[in-house]
Design brief:
Blueprint (H helix, E strand, L loop, with lengths): L2 E6 L17 E2 L2 E2 H11 L5 E6 L4 H11 L4 E6 L4 H10 L7 E6 L7 H8 L8 E7 L5 E4 L2 E5 L6 E3 L3 E4 H7 L8 H7 L4 E5 L10 H10 L1
Parallel strand pairs: 1-4, 1-6, 4-5, 7-12
Antiparallel strand pairs: 2-3, 6-11, 7-10, 7-11, 8-9
Helix pairs in contact: 1-2, 5-6
This protein binds cytidine-5'-monophosphate.
Length: 219
């Protein structure tokens, strides 16, 4: 049973205020992308990796993989205008005999091995997909302009993170289904059953310079 990872690193990261794409912003000595790439390389659960790089950053991504000795990297592909388009490009590079695809955001550099294990296990129990998530601390409201339309029941809400794991065939079909801010939404839309497992605070998505400093302090 082969498990492939698609590492989505093609975002622009404008809110970081850097002169380069977010995945290539500095985290210590190396680009942000290096941390999650190294962790996927070192994971006992991952066989091969596809990196989805921003246009014109494919070569630096290949050189980084070489520098890290990341021999599991089977391909570097060019991302699209949206996350869903980027994931679609990455999934298209995964060979037909892959059984499981794990999709991870390079913007979440601290990827604990136990979360990888936690999202993969339920796929053997009949689930189509698995997402790590955390409870929501704030009360979440649906708004239109500045008017509250609805207040959602907090005990039913979680905040979804990555890595998200899927049966490969299910994800292949789901990524043809248009746009969404995560892969699980595409699988849900296609009628797939998605399980929620416990996420991890260290899987913070780096958005601002302050996030970058926080993640740096954990490493
Ligand atoms: O934009 P967002 O914060 O949702 O990005 C989450 C992840 O998706 C990041 O790792 C980013 O590099 C990736 N992404 C991508 N292609 C895009 C937009 C985002 O690979 N067009």
């Amino acid at each position: 049973m082969s498990t492939w990872a698609v590492l989505a690193a093609a975002g622009s990261g404008e809110r970081l205020g850097s002169d380069r794409p977010k995945a290539f912003a500095r985290l210590g000595e190396l680009p942000l992308l290096a941390e999650s790439l190294r962790r996927l390389e070192d994971s006992d659960w991952i066989d091969s990796i596809v990196v989805v790089a921003p246009a014109d950053w494919e070569e630096p991504a290949i050189l980084l993989a070489e520098e890290l000795g990341a021999g599991k990297v089977a391909g570097v592909v060019t991302g699209g205008a949206t996350r869903a388009a980027s994931v679609r490009a990455g999934v298209a590079e995964v060979p037909a005999d892959a059984v499981v695809i794990l999709v991870h955001d390079a913007a979440r550099p601290v990827l604990p091995e136990e979360v990888v294990e936690r999202v993969l296990a339920p796929l053997a129990e009949g689930w189509d997909g698995v997402v790590p998530a955390l409870p929501v601390a704030d009360t979440v409201k649906r708004v239109r302009g500045d008017e509250v339309v609805e207040t959602l029941a907090r005990e039913e809400l979680v905040a979804a993170q990555t890595p998200q794991a899927f049966l490969a065939d299910v994800l292949r079909r789901a990524v043809e289904g248009g746009e969404a801010s995560d892969c699980a939404a595409l699988v849900e839309r296609a009628g797939g059953r998605v399980k929620v497992v416990e996420g991890d605070r260290r899987l913070l998505k780096v958005t601002t310079g302050a996030d970058l400093e926080l993640v740096q302090s954990w490493l």
